[in-house]
């Protein structure tokens, strides 16, 4: 898989993404239902992620997890646990959780998909993906992220936050700030499949 690793900035100790999601997008006009249509060219990780999220192509999970292991994990210190980012859309199977568990199987690193608790938005609030500025997203996330202190072992571990698409970093920053209050978490690393 062709990757072009980019450093992603935020309140974590180090962070990287595999590749830009969409390389080019040409507007094609409106379809018969009134929806805007585009001809998108995606990077290889972007295409794999698109197939996973929007075409339920679950074969992409292992490919993407293997690429994260090969390309991104060597850029971090020793990782003690993997924390998938909370999903923004409710699905029967959550792609980010599937990616985290596949990465956990490949690396023998435990996944804590119940550690981050994201309270629902107020009724009538726009979805985060429909907000465009960092300030709007920060305001929408205020007070909604908390930690379920579910680590039962003694000790302190480096955590890998795993996300599919990195945009402004607002949610990842909110999760990171919450994780910093948990005494069992030492360094926090951030990994994303693609950036917007």
Which helices and strands, and how do they pair?
Layout: E1 6-7, E2 14-20, E3 22-30, E4 36-42, H1 44-55, H2 60-72, E5 81-84, H3 95-107, E6 110-111, E7 116-118, H4 134-141, E8 145-147, E9 157-166, H5 170-179, E10 185-195
Parallel strand pairs: 2-10, 5-6, 5-9, 9-10
Antiparallel strand pairs: 1-2, 3-4, 7-8
Describe it for me?
With 196 residues, this protein is α/β, with parallel strands linked by helices. It has helices at residues 44-55, 60-72, 95-107, 134-141, 170-179; strands at residues 6-7, 14-20, 22-30, 36-42, 81-84, 110-111, 116-118, 145-147, 157-166, 185-195. The strands form 3 sheets. Strands 1-2-10-9-5-6 form a 6-stranded mixed beta sheet, with helices on both faces. Strands 3-4 form a two-stranded antiparallel sheet. The protein is globular, with a radius of gyration of 17 Å. The model has no long low-confidence stretch (mean pLDDT 93).
């Amino acid at each position: 898989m062709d990757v072009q690793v980019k450093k992603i900035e935020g309140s974590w100790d180090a962070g990287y993404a595999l590749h830009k999601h969409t390389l080019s997008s040409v507007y094609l006009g409106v379809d018969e239902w009134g929806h805007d249509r585009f001809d998108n060219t995606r990077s290889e990780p972007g295409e794999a992620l698109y197939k996973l999220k929007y075409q339920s192509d679950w074969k992409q999970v292992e490919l993407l997890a293997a690429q994260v292991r090969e390309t991104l994990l060597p850029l971090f210190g020793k990782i003690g646990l993997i924390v998938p980012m909370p999903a923004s859309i409710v699905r029967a199977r959550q792609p980010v959780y599937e990616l985290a568990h596949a990465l956990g199987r490949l690396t023998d690193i435990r996944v804590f998909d119940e550690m981050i608790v994201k309270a629902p938005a107020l009724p009538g609030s726009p979805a985060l993906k429909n907000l465009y500025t960092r300030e709007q997203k920060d305001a929408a996330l205020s007070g909604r992220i908390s930690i379920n202190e579910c680590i039962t072992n003694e000790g302190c571990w480096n955590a890998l936050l795993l996300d599919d698409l990195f945009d402004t970093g607002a949610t990842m920053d909110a999760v990171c700030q919450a994780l910093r209050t948990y005494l069992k978490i030492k360094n926090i690393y951030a990994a994303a499949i693609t950036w917007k």
